[in-house]
Amino acid sequence: MATKSITYFEHSGSGNTEAVLAIVDERLKEGDIKNVVVASTSGATGVTFAQALGKKTNLVIISTKPGSKTPGVWEFDPANEKKIKRLGGRVIRHTHALSGLEKSFTERFSGISHSEILAESLKTLFSPGTKVGVEIGIMALDSGAITLEKTIVVGGTGATGRGADTALVVLPAHTNNFFDFHVLEILAKPFTKD
């Protein structure tokens, strides 16, 4: 049996980023985890994590793919990408594992896909950051940026601004083996989805 603490934030959003970073840094001290995967749309959250963890661990920053909001445009700031690399992290551009191609069919023909139901369930039952954490764990493993081992994933609630408010320890899985994915520990998450 193990007893672990979970930090619950009163509200979701970017105001929790520094606290999440401290929680992740503390969890890394246990020595059993080598990979930290962080979601970052513009790169600002990625830089924050790279400044603290870029030389301590295999730090992978997952961005949205170019065209997520505007066709042909990547929202990630190229200056942030350079900073992250200089600080020892790496940036991966990847299609969202829990929407991707299926979202095109939903938008064109209506209805909803299995992946979108899963994504909405994770957001509703736990938090948007939990959904993001699961998704970026898959994306990092699919891209080859991490190996199949215990990993910390960090997500946030995009609707309330950028930043991190959720951290999980997971055993990731590839897209084609999704049901092998396991959330092992919840390190931090918000109480609310606001």
UniProtKB/TrEMBL annotation:
* Annotated InterPro entries: Pyrv_Knase_C_sf (IPR036918)
Its name, as the record gives it, is Uncharacterized protein
Q: Which organism is it from?
A: Methanosphaerula palustris (strain ATCC BAA-1556 / DSM 19958 / E1-9c)
